């Protein structure tokens, strides 16, 4: 018996997870100290409240989490759905699992009310999210931290959750810790 999951075959169904723990994250990405490559940012992050995953052979191999958050764009305060904790096990990447878990998460996000979803990512991941329909926001985005408001050092991307939901013009500030 081997732990090689490189032959996933047909994409397994995405399921809504009742919970998502550090152990689940380690099951997907291993137990490294910086699984998302963002520890150098020094940011404090919020846990997600809604979780979606893909299991294969009894093992969690993909995840995406959601959290509804307040955001200001110019003088307007609105809510967005923050997407985070997106992870695919290294040995099953390139098989469309990120697309499938993100599609299921965004289908649910559309039921949560906000018109837009946002995520933060490292620059090398921008092309992946662009292929999934996300667009990069220009300019600095401020987020809250225990020490006060700071400029988000990662790339900020958005996607509409409803038809004709264009991103409005104006300075963007996440009125909470990032997700």
Walk me through this protein's architecture:
Strands 1, 2, 3, 4, 5, 6, 7, 8, 9 and 10 form a ten-stranded mixed sheet that branches. This protein has 179 residues and is α+β, with helices and mostly antiparallel strands. The protein has helices at 22-29, 97-109, 126-131, and strands spanning 14-17, 50-56, 59-73, 76-88, 116-121, 135-136, 141-145, 148-151, 155-160, 172-174. The longest helix is centred in the middle third of the chain and has 13 residues, at 97-109.
What are the SSEs and their pairings?
Elements: E1 14-17, H1 22-29, E2 50-56, E3 59-73, E4 76-88, H2 97-109, E5 116-121, H3 126-131, E6 135-136, E7 141-145, E8 148-151, E9 155-160, E10 172-174
Parallel strand pairs: 4-5, 7-10
Antiparallel strand pairs: 1-2, 2-3, 3-4, 3-10, 5-9, 6-9, 7-8
Brief overview, please?
With 179 residues, the protein is an alpha+beta fold. It contains 3 helices and 10 strands, in the order βαβββαβαβββββ. Strands 1, 2, 3, 4, 5, 6, 7, 8, 9 and 10 form a 10-stranded mixed sheet that branches.
What is the total tally of β strands?
10
Taken as a percent bin, the fraction of beta residues is 35-45%
**N-end to C-end Cα span:** 38 Å
Model regions low in confidence, pLDDT < 50 over at least 5 residues:
1-7
Q: What integer value in Å does the Rg equal?
A: 16 Å
Sheet/helix structural class: alpha+beta
Output the helix-strand order: EHEEEHEHEEEEE
How many strands, which pairing sense, and closed or not: the largest β-sheet?
A: 10 strands, mixed
Give the overall silhouette.
globular
Number of helices: 3
Mean pLDDT: 92
């Amino acid at each position: 018996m081997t732990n090689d999951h490189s032959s996933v075959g047909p994409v397994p169904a995405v399921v809504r997870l009742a919970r998502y723990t550090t152990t689940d994250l380690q099951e997907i990405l291993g137990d490294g100290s910086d699984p998302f490559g963002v520890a150098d940012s020094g940011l404090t992050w919020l846990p997600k409240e809604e979780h979606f995953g893909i299991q294969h052979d009894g093992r969690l191999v993909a995840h995406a989490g959601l959290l509804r958050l307040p955001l200001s764009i110019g003088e307007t305060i609105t809510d967005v759905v923050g997407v985070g904790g997106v992870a695919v096990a290294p040995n099953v990447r390139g098989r469309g699992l990120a697309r499938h878990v993100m599609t299921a998460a965004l289908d649910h996000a559309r039921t949560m009310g906000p018109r837009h979803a946002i995520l933060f990512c490292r620059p090398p991941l921008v092309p992946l999210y662009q292929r999934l329909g996300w667009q990069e926001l220009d300019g600095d985005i401020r987020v809250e931290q225990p020490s006060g408001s700071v400029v988000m050092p990662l790339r900020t991307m958005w996607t509409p959750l409803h038809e004709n939901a264009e991103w409005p013009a104006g300075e963007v500030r996440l009125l909470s810790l990032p997700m």
